[in-house]
Protein 1
Amino acid sequence: MPDHITDRTGLRGDCEQCFGLCCVALPFSASADFAIDKPAGKPCPNLRGDHRCGIHAELRTKGFTGCTVYDCFGAGQKVSQITFGGRGGRTARSDDVRRMVDVFPVVRQLHELLWYLTEALTLPAARPIHADLSRALERTEALTRQTPEELGVLDVGAHRQEINVLLLKTSELVRAGAGGKKKNRRGADLMGARLKGADLRGASLRGAYLIAADLTGADLRGADLIGADLRDADLTDADLTDAFFLTQPQLNAARGSAGTRLPGSVARPVHWAAQL
């Protein structure tokens, strides 16, 4: 598999190349995750003139934990530098800002799909459908490079459903070779569940609600974690080796330790050290 096909560098946020789109486009409400209310399209008061966050190093202590678990999958720099050709920011025309606000969430969804498709192409067990995955990746990448007008009318939901068929096939192929009982907990309500030391090898946890679940020492090797809600889940000493379709935002929302074993596609969150 050529390296350029499986390179996910462009699918990681690069704030230096972005106009702070997530700080403008996205809405949030005062809660445990955000200290204030902010409607979509209005710049966050913490956004500086250089498009950087004025309290980035203090987001957690200032009540903006939600910001620390968000990732645009590189959509911010794509929209800023390619879709709008570097024209934007606080000096942009109001109609361009409005279109950026509309387009950014669409490209973010497409980039998330690119993340999953790229990962699927690295999985040897999915080799029987690698050709289909490659075509889907090329088609999705092409969609991200459309004009603002084209992106504004794109039915991204229909495209997600199409791609999900391939991701489900990938999951079946990969989990078939994993150990364990292949538990199907897709979409399961496991909020606060006591799963300490649980054998979840090869389990489907797609879209499962694992909020505040105790997964201490759980074996999640070869588990499908696409869309699983891991907010405040305790992954202390859990083994996520070869777990797939796990994203950095999911991991950032969880709790863990130095003993938590992770797949190479994600990084150990810095704030985990403060929880020890």
Protein 2
Amino acid sequence: MDVLSDVLAVLRTGRPRAAHVRWHAPWAQEFASVPGSAGFQIVLQGSCLLLPPDGEPVQLHAGDVLLMPHGSGHTLADSADTPAPAPACEPDDPRYSTPYAFDSVDPSGEGGPETVLLCGTYRLDPQRTHPLLLDLPERIHLPADLERHRELHAAVGLLAAELGNPRLGSDAAVPALLETLLLYVLRIWFAEQPARGTPAGWAAALNDPQITAALDAIHSSPADPWTVASLAERAGLSRAPFARRFAAMTGRPPLTYLTWWRMTTAARLLHTSDATLKSVAAQAGYASEFAFAAAFKRVYGIAPGRYRRTGALSPAPVM
């Protein structure tokens, strides 16, 4: 599995939620900050203003996609002069009629121009937050660009069709399309960073074929007995330059990252499967339960068996 796919598979938890909403001017809506989630807004019809808490208003047009990777609060409105009502719109709003959507609503307005939005959230597990996502900005705004973002807009169109007219199979289609939407947004953002002059960090790592080769090796087979030398060979680099380059881009030396990802994968297996501790240890690259338990406790501060019994605890420390 490639690194981005693996990170999203491990980080995502629960089912994403989405709403298909129509507004008639004048209108404004505040969306609350929701830690432990990523929110999105997509303009399907009309236009509106993004009113961030820190900065100038941003005009959004039909086809624009907005992602808040860290669940940041924000306000959307037809005009900067329209007051936003309270309380804020939140993911647990009782209007959600299914695990993924609430029925289209038409908030009171005065019959002005119509704006149609897709909005929603992805639940993220704070115990498995990956540095790849920590590198993301508070907001990612992808303006409508059918030439450059064809796949993204195809996913948006399919999602809008399913939410606007639920039919047989929509309960399966919508979550899959929401996952695809998140992947496309992140893929586009990371791919565009070199052109913006990003010198280091995960955007640089994911656009470096040699470092990506090493990362994909770790994520494809985390239990393999990787060494700096064998990972450098995968990257097509000599040992010392590879180690320096990997650490500069990802923020961690290769084997430190490998250990951290093994423990992250193990924590997920403990929470989401009934695999034995011996099986979890093997999948994390440890020959014995004892060695695995010692490594796990160093990272999480708790034995793996107790971790499984007590449920979600505090996040693992950054290694």
